[in-house]
Amino acid sequence: MPQMSKVNITETILRDAHQCLIATRMRTEDMLPICDRLDRVGFWSLEVWGGATFDACVRFLKEDPWERLRKLRQALPNTRLQMLLRGQNLVGYRHYSDDVVRAFVKRSADNGIDVFRIFDAINDTRNLRVSIDAVKAAGKHAQGAICYTTSPVHTIEQFVAMAVELEQMGCDSVAIKDMAGLLTPFIAGDLTKRLVGTLKVPVYLHSHATSGLSDMCQLKAVEQGCFGIDTAISSFSNGASHPPTESMVAALRGTEYDTALDLELLQEIGFYFHEIRKKYHQFESEFTGIDTRVQVNQVPGGMISNLSSQLKEQGALDRLGEVLNEIPKVREDLGYPPLVTPTSQIVGTQSVLNVLTGTRYKSITNEVKAYLQGRYGRAPSAVNAAVRQQAIGNEDVIDVRPADLLEPEMENLRGQIGDLAKSEEDVLTFAMFPEIGRDFLQQRAAGTLTPEALEPIAGQKSDGAPVDFNVTLHGETYHIMLTGTGHKTQQMRPFYVTVDGVPEEIIVETLDEILPEAPTTGGKAKRSSGSKRPRATAPGHVTTSMPGTIIDVLVKVGDKVEAGDPVLVTEAMKMETEIQATISGKITSVHVQKGDTVTPDETLVEIE
User: What's the DSSP call for residue 32?
Assistant: First the structure.
């Protein structure tokens, strides 16, 4: 279709930019003061919601995500508000029934969303239809997204065919969603040219800067008639985020593609967020610069930081290279899914398990099992039959749209959450995340919602804690100044200090040793600190392969089990894994309950 020359900008600072660079931790209180200036810029849209923001609000920030949306709507009266919707997965990690999808879209629209960017992680358009229909029914803009990836089975022709299908399904625009930064400039130009020449609706480009190519990709796309691009204010740009808004506006200024945005106003906004970013320094990842490995392993920047965090928690960060080498192999076994939520977590967590257990697919997550059974949709290519057999045995593989097998859920959800829900929005919060959603609503009712603590900025005091002091050791006195702290893992935290002016890094580790003399029930040893569980030393001691949280206990003392029977379900990296009985016998001790945090080598269940 003929396109206007002017390029439109979607600004991502309030959603994807901070999701990529500071683990989605920006609080609403730091968004609202700048909204007046953001609203004056004239963006085509501001991405403010969806993706991981819903999860982070409830899980970490203890904010009501619906209230955030309402506040932003009020503070941004002149700007379209946009969200990222994972099709049938909405903002969660499983498929929801159609009535939940319709209710979620309607309430999102009613609370302020104007543009819904809708995608499916494996590009199965069957999983997009209900969301698109619901957006259209609400009178809002439905933007269908193609998850761009490369593999032996993905072609430009396939992506164009999918775009045509999205247009036929009623989408008002189509976005190329390059979530991992895999696009290269000339392919971006070619794909855009094909889409613009085929579709009657506008084409948008969303490309992450991970590999250092995204600004060139955007320029080539603009030259081929791309309607709009996603950018991030400079202080939250590049790396795993997006090209800088100010830079792209300056690059196009005075050309036929001129965005007509006020560069000076954008720079004011950039200075504001430069200061705000310091507040969240504890969530900074070392993987926020250019990383060209994505062109080989296809791992998005946010996924790399998640993997590194998981490995660091168990002292295995040195094995990150092995995990990155394993990811393409797992992806091939699963039929080459694009790596975006939730498939990035599905592939990434399984890759970590394969490396840490020393045996590929010795432990298989529930999500991999569901994926191989077809419960996420149709894989892009044939999956590894041997892995599927190992995961699900002779269970039937479904070939229908997964949500066709789900009964309506809303009425049941209302009954389960009861009076804790004060609105339909509360019911939907519970629907997205039953465990943390219920905890959030209970804490809200009790008035005990407390966000995770922010560590002090270097040189600042927090709660009166000293940051500048002298230490005397063996008669020598040293001047110590605390300049910052790193992200705390399960057992370790780095502290950055100067010793007589010389910068140093100190790693403080919580010791977690066995004390043989410490009595416990049955005379077994306990840990001296941290966990009170005995170390796994016998064949009947059930443990976990990676740190996580217990989300279900399937056995009790006295139960008889066979080797291989599931006894616990853990969650790590938002993926669930069944922990199986190591031997046949009777359950003699259960050392965990729902909600407990566990680490490798601890005895979680004992079998004799």
Answer: G
Mean pLDDT of 130-144: 98
Q: How many helices (H) and strands (E) does the chain have?
A: 21, 22
The runs of H, that is alpha helices, within 314-433 are 320-333, 343-357, 366-372, 385-392, 410-417, 424-432
- pTM given for the model: 0.82
* 519 has a pLDDT exceeding 50: no
First to last CA, the chain: 71
- Length, in residues, of the chain: 608
Tell me the DSSP string of 499-539: ETTEEEEEEEE----EETT---GGG--EESSS--SPBP-ST
Query: Is the confidence at residue 305, as pLDDT, over 70?
Result: no
Q: Which helix (H) or strand (E) holds 163?
A: helix 156-168
- Closest to 435 (Cα-Cα) out of 556, 305, 596: 596
Q: φ, ψ for residue 605 (rounded to 5)? A: -140, 140
286 or 182: whose pLDDT is higher?
182
Buried/exposed code over 250-281 (b: 16+ C-beta within 10 A; e: otherwise): ebbeeeebebebeeeebbebbebbeebbebbb
Angle at the Cα of 358 (from 328 to 373), degrees rounded to 5? 55
What DSSP state is assigned to residue 89?
Answer: G
Residue 503, pLDDT score: 60
DSSP-derived letter for residue 398 is: P
Q: Which of 175-189, 355-369, 414-428 bottoms out in mean pLDDT, i.e. has the lowest?
A: 355-369
Question: Any residues with CB less than 8 A from the CB of 474 and at least 6 apart, and which?
Answer: none
Distance CA(450)–CA(452), nearest Å, equals: 7
Q: Is 598 left (phi over 0), alpha (psi -120 to 50) or beta?
A: beta
Q: What's the mean pLDDT when you consider all of the chain?
A: 88
CA 408 – CA 277 distance, rounded (Å): 42
Torsion-angle region of residue 564: left (phi > 0), alpha (psi -120 to 50) or beta? left
Residue bearing the bigger pLDDT, 549 or 467 = 549
Cα(153)–Cα(176) distance, rounded to whole angstroms?
Answer: 18
